[in-house]
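FYI - complex with S-adenosylmethionine, inputs then prediction.
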Amino acid sequence: MKLYKNTTQAVIDSLTQIFGDKKYADKVIEKILKQNSKWGARDRRFIAETTYDIVRWYRLLMEVTPCGPHDYWKLLGGWCAMNEQELPDWVEFEGLNRKAILRKWEEVKTVRKIAESIPDWMDEQGEKELGRIWHDELKALNEEARVVLRVNSLKTNVKKLYREFSEVEVEVTLDERYPEALILAQRQNVFKLPQFKEGLFEVQDAGSQAIAPFLQVEPGMRVIDACAGAGGKTLHLAALMQNKGRIISMDTEEWKLTELKLRARRAGVGNVETRVIESTKTIKRMEKMGDRVLLDVPCSGLGVLRRNPDAKWKLSTEFIEKVIDLQQNILHDYSMMVKPGGKLVYSTCSLMPTENEKQVAKFLTNNPDFTLEEEKHIWPSEGFDGFYMARVVRKA
Ligand SMILES: C[S@@+](CC[C@H](N)C(=O)[O-])C[C@H]1O[C@@H](n2cnc3c(N)ncnc32)[C@H](O)[C@@H]1O
């Protein structure tokens, strides 16, 4: 594929904002693509995919090119060399030598943290916590993320939406493990589709779609989604409950709940009430009120690096230690909202036992009125984002 100056410049501008200004990659790309409505689908794909790829392979590219952390043109040149992409005769690429880059790449292929392009500490932690399986999971985390939709069963069904998409040449595939998922064959801006505006689907990774069913909700129940954020799982729970019963969606961030309400309206969800958590009182008022409680807690996000590759360069061990404390506090304090005989699901998008099964084991030791019913991992090597979920039951 030929490089064009304007789209290449857009990649450079995106990298400058992601690494220079430390902005989130998804937000940066979304904004840059919005700024130029004349770009066609191919240009947009080039900008988004190239930027994500350079973010993903940042350490490796710096090593093989070689160049400094803010030498974005060189990073792009290195990326071209490694992807058999022709290098135009531009002054920005002067001094780059394809053969030398490929030679260096061969040299570093045996050093996993460089070849798989992750910080030293992350490789050490992955090895320590996951042992043998870390190698394959890490490789899977470096693949490109697919765009997955969850069909909104309150408004349509998989068959109908599949048929509608095929009529407008939106190619999607199915996966029998995830009955409500449609997987896009090619990345595209699905938010522009009329079917999105009508609330017929949400963008939600397939792994994430396993969590709401794991809570075993039924129509008519009172369900508390205590770390609801912008409501990805709340909307799924509402669909599973056929809009019957009540969902109380809580979060410490009011703006996320505002977004949740907008999404709920679009999705035709009518059984959700939001509550901002201002203090422990908000939780205490709900003591023993939930038939079901979902704790989709903040985490390192190590299971979703495929989707958020910039997190590799922003995460730190200090942050993870803090988040582990927060997870245990949430689990301990918020479990009081489960009524006797009710169930609670603790979930993360991390792969690490310290954030997952070890947290649940500690909780069970300190809270003997709960017992473990089921635990489940979704690994990135299975093809989608990585998740962990555990369901515990409160004694009746
Ligand atoms: C993994 S995200 C939730 C994603 C959401 N469930 C979804 O499906 O889209 C974790 C959420 O926990 C919230 N959070 C952070 N600290 C919290 C606390 N102490 N109590 C409740 N929620 C908290 C964050 O604001 C964030 O929205």
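The chain has a mean pLDDT of 96. The pocket of S-adenosylmethionine is lined by residues 226-233, 251-253, 256, 277, 296, 298, 330 (CB under 6 Å).
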